[in-house]
Amino acid sequence: MTDKSILVTQLQQSHSTGIESVNPDFERLQSTQASRLQEIQFIEDEKKRIQSKLEAIALGQQEQNNTIIHDNTSYKKQKNRRKKNRVKGEEPKRFITRSP
């Protein structure tokens, strides 16, 4: 019975120490793993930051393109209106003169 209790205490001690007793470089490995996790987290944060910047740029570019398209279509509409109102063979009226 004493042999069993000794074995149980040894087993508990080895279980409580765990990996440290198996691998003496456990603390060094744990610190390198923690630093790698920090690097990965930093990289993920940078990705998110860059992605949000790209989305903002794309949104601004899209708004700019929309306004350009709108301005261009309104210009074309005015040009077509002038063409329709113009009598064939006549120059477009640029100045309106009033008689006294």
Description:
- The protein is mostly helical and 100 residues long.
- It has a domain at 22-65.
- It is 80% helix and 0% strand.
- It contains 3 helices and no strands.
- The chain is rod-shaped and about 130 Å long.
- The relative contact order is 0.04.
Q: In brief, what are we looking at here?
A:
This protein is mostly helical and 100 residues long. It contains three helices and no strands. It is rod-shaped, with a radius of gyration of 40 Å.
Along the chain, the helix and strand elements come as: HHH
Strand percentage, roughly?
Answer: under 5%
If you average the pLDDT, what whole number results?
A: 74
Count the DSSP helices. 3
Summarize the biggest pleated sheet.
Answer: none
What is the gyration radius calculated from CA atoms?
40 Å
Class of secondary structure makeup: mainly alpha
Helix content: over 70%
What's the total count of β strands?
Answer: 0
Low-confidence stretches: none
What overall geometry do the principal axes of the alpha carbons give? Answer: rod-shaped
The CA-CA distance between the termini, in Å, is 131 Å
Biased composition (Basic residues): 76-86
Region (Disordered): 68-100
What keyword list fits this structure?
100 residues; mainly alpha
Summarize the topology.
Elements: H1 2-17, H2 19-22, H3 26-85
